Amino acid sequence: MKLQEAKVLITGGSSGIGYETARQLITHGAKVAICGRNLEKLTRAAAELGALPIHADVSKEADVKGMIETVLETFGDFNVVINNAAYGYFNALTELDAHKFQELIQTNILGAMMVGKESARHFVARNYGNIVNISSTAGNAGFAMGTAYCATKFALKGMTESWRAELRKHNIRVMLVNPSEVQTNFGHNAGRESKAFNPSKLESEEIAHLIISMLEMRDVGFVTEATVFATNPQG
């Protein structure tokens, strides 16, 4: 697609991968809306980017429906959704908190589904659209302490494949992006110890570059799934 014609909704767009993807898309001439739960953080990010801020929690169906309505009212249309809103919860199996696990599912799985559902309804009606789900290498292989988070990302991969099978006949490209470790606030927000910046490891810039490259391909084709690793991480 031509990025100058892109009208994009990015969930979880006030920081990290979502923020950087919005920045790069806007630089390429796209119109971008970002959503987030923290109003102060969202407002500041939108002002810095020149994006449309939408205060919404993707785990709440009413918020998701209102978010789509706001995008359509403001842009008149939209043709790309980047399902990026998610967070992490890590603990040993014997110590997992069922309530925290359920909350994670509500955002990472049900939230992604509701955003995909409402976006797909619009895309099917116009017979065109692009859905980019931001997953993780944690959706390809489990690891110690990763039961909850890996479960949500394995689920997202399965949903992506199901949506793709349903929506290709409507000229809707459904794509999955699997970043490995990216230096954002993700780990800190999940309660993990903060790490010093490492120039040999990935940053949000690389993931945003991939997303934009996938979108820029002519609509006759699409990349179904792509994984990003650091070339030679040290430490």
UniProtKB/TrEMBL annotation:
Q: Which domain of life is it from?
A: Bacteria
Gene Ontology MF, one = oxidoreductase activity
Keywords for this protein: Oxidoreductase
For this record, the Gene Ontology CC terms, alphabetical, are: membrane
The cross-references to PROSITE patterns, in alphabetical order and at most eight, read: ADH_SHORT
Q: Which family does it belong to?
A: Belongs to the short-chain dehydrogenases/reductases (SDR) family.
Family matches, as PANTHER family = DEHYDROGENASE/REDUCTASE SDR FAMILY MEMBER 7B, DEHYDROGENASE_REDUCTASE SDR FAMILY MEMBER 7B
Q: What is this protein called?
A: 3-oxoacyl-[acyl-carrier protein] reductase
- What species is given as this protein's source? Pseudarcicella hirudinis
Give the classification, highest ranks: Bacteria, Pseudomonadati, Bacteroidota, Cytophagia, Cytophagales
